[in-house]
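Teaching assistant here, posting this on the class forum so everyone can see the example we discussed in section. The complex has two components, and the goal was to see what a joint structure prediction looks like when all of them are supplied at once.
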Amino acid sequence: MLSDTSKFQEHMMSFVKLTASALAIAAVSATAAAARDQVQVAGSSTVLPYASIVAEAFGENFDFPTPVVESGGSSAGLKRFCEGVGENTIDVANASRKIKDKEIAACAEAGVTDIIEVRIGYDGIVFASQLNGPAFTAFEPADIFNALGAKVLKDGEIVDNTYAQWADFNADLPAADIMAFIPGTKHGTREVFEEKVLVAGCEATGAYDAMVASGMSEDDAEDACMSVRTDGKSVDIDGDYTETLASIDANPNGIGVFGLAFYENNTDKLKTATMSGVEATTATIASGDYPVSRPLFFYVKKAHIGVIPGLKEYAEFFISDDMAGPDGPLAEYGLVSDPELASTQAAIEAEDTMQ
Amino acid sequence: MSDFTADNSPAAGKGSSLFKETARTKRRNAAEARFKAYGIGAIALGLFFLIALLSAIISNGIPAFKQTFVTISVELPEAKLDKNGNRDPAEMAKVTTFGYKPVITNALIAALKAEGIEIPFAKEKDVADILSSSAPAQVRDTVLANPDLVGQTVDFRLLASSRVDGYFKGRVTREALARDKNLDAEHLDIADQMVKAGLMETTFNADFIFGADASESRPEQAGIGVSMVGSFFMMLVVLSLALPIGVAASIYLEEFAPQNKWTDLIEVNISNLAAVPSIVFGILGLAVFIQFAHLPQSAPLVGGLVLTLMTLPTIIISTRASLKAVPPSIRDAALGIGASKMQSVFHHVLPLAMPGILTGTIIGLAQALGETAPLLLIGMIGYIASNMPDGIASGFLDPNSAMPAQIYEWAKRADPAYYERAWGGIIILLLFLMTMNIIAVILRRRFERRW
């Protein structure tokens, strides 16, 4: 035992030395912290796959290091974007919706004044359910509103939503329990869902007119249209689409809101429903026939161009014809190419900022 | 006691025998048997879940260690890859991966035709969907490293796309492809024929263990290697900070500090910190290390600092426990023959407590190695682990991920092939954790002294 103890003392001494040298190395490397040399991107989880594809190809084809792409949602990304200017803030925010005036103001307050807006293309939002589940094959915005709205129009009256099954309000739909998994409020997708589905459905069912007729202002009526029921039939998903997919896997009656690209990667488990009679494909989204689509953006801090190496090159490469064009890898993954790509390219070339 | 005094039944009277079970003894024996059965049941249930979990991990994760490769000869035409013929890598770098793609597609078509495999597509180049989109980058890197290869025909071992790979692993079926726009069933027919012709094989894939992360469009290329290095650097930071600070704090608190309200307060706080959810340390790290101290985002150094904060209470508590376990007689003997207090601690108490301290440290490190939540807030989760660090400073400061963060990231991605890789990553992480825990057990068995 005695020998064990002395052995341990010996070991401990060498260990202390090792620790001390490791500490020294850490200290030296911390002081040697040079300027950041890779682009930092964060934001929308819908844009993340595209950004990662671009970042990978950018690292392969340029002498700059591969950019770092984090997700977290459009709002979270823009919030970090607006934290200020400097090396320990991100350079690019991905967003699946346009930046809000409120966010531009917050940015300006933190010193982020010159923002370059880049539209990379369009994305469709699909309503998908289990491949072998009930036959949810065709929806109208009105159906989604009747199923999920907090207050709906029933027999000419605005009442709390008590529909339990899809067939309760539309006999063409299956008699299955209503269960929907929709993106949480930190996702840009939620906003598109509210505007293009809930509000459209609210107007189509006449609930909007009834609300206005009952003395609500137009803004209040629109807000009321966007609020979803809170009795557990509509579930907010704050995570990514994989979480929505897992919820649908566990719930045969579940309807989930997905981006088209995610659905196309999981066609072995999911089926989509048409919206207003139109099937979601890149062609119908590009032509504007499919009603629930939205542009995807990223925002660049102009103050970081020239400071962070490769930032402008990354932005230019992202929307180059090679990447974002109709035959590029982004389109292959599911992005609907922007017909006005050339003008966006020119705008980045000139570093045009938002007004 | 109560059994005896309360017992007035005739059976327990004088005539009873030790060899004959009374009703009460039977009841007590039955109670004991029941308790044993509950215990065995509890262990059996635990074992069942463990086996279910392990078999799920292994059956889902093992395929990640294998990958389908395509071996073809690629003709590298000078007219496309080096127009000026100078073999100058800087000049040749102007031909991007988009320029290499048709070269590889042509090579694949030529290879198929040479084997007599029919291509049933209207556009012959559609057959290239069999290959991973990483192929052009792989060929380009090779050519730029050896410019003299241009003009020759070179054999390349390229990755097959994730869906072809999934077909050989049983994940993708022809029926499922009917609804999939990424690949057609005809591609699988070609793949089957390529296997017969020896152009395609599914083998062990070391790149999964040592490689870098890949983008969403090419799961077949993704590996956990870079994030493993990220984890390694974080553990270096944790070990080199948490161990000395933790041990110094515990020695002071245990051996030198006076017993008063202040030390009581500190003690309570340490116990509380050990129970704080790890995400809180992430918020703290974001505020202190990134926003205040301006350390770089996504850096293993910051990750290590955050995990140090998280591990410190664990190390302090276990160190104090092992210091307490050293009997006072050792200290008294040392002091009695004239050692100073510090000598008694460093010459006698600390060496005897060392096995316990190291065990606690290793368990703390294992806990830190498996931690994901705080890393979310300091930017270590995402498409990050794409470059292998090229030195010690770069290892600490360049953006990197960690193994559990990489697994979480893979589990979130759309392509089902990433799901398989997440399980594969779990196997590797579990191997690390098991090794660390086994070392801790061995240390304890080998060196720990009971008093």
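For the discussion questions: The radius of gyration of chain A is 25 Å. The mean pLDDT of chain A is 87. Think about how each of these relates to the inputs above.
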